[in-house]
Structures are given as C-alpha cells and as structure tokens.
Write a structure and sequence with these properties.
single chain; 74 residues; alpha+beta; three-stranded antiparallel beta sheet; 3 strands; 16% strand
C-alpha cells in the first residue's frame, strides 16, 4: 500500500441463490454483487471509485471494527 491507498472494510454475504453481495459501510448505498467472490470484489471496487468521486476521503464514515452480538432466537 502506498500513501494514497485507502484500506476499506468490505462486507461479503451470499444470498439464497448463491450470489455474492458486497457492501462498503463507509459509503451510503455502496453495494454490488457477483457470481463469485472475485467478481463481486471487482464490481464493488468500481462502485467505490464512483463513491470517491462524490465523497472526499476526509468525509468518510470512520470504521471502528467488527463485533458479534448474541441474541436469543424466538
């Protein structure tokens, strides 16, 4: 990574049809998908570049981290 690179968190899920859904929580509405993890990651990269055109890096949401929460099922 060089000084201009930005490390972004990506959420990766798989829907009931086997499609990979990817999101970057630092940008509002930054989502994409693909038939493979590689395709989904390629697609989210393109969406992130579009988001960066509209949102300066200094205004990005701050990613704190990842945690899991256990809740009782009904």
């Amino acid at each position: 990574m060089n000084k201009q690179d930005i490390q972004l968190p990506i959420i990766l899920e798989q829907d009931e049809d086997g499609v990979y859904i990817v999101s970057c929580p630092l940008f509002r509405g930054c989502h994409s998908y693909g038939d493979s993890v590689e395709e989904a990651m390629k697609n989210i990269r393109e969406v992130i570049y579009l988001c960066l055109e509209e949102t300066p890096v200094a205004q990005l949401n701050r990613y704190i981290g990842y945690r899991e929460l256990v809740v009782k099922s009904a």
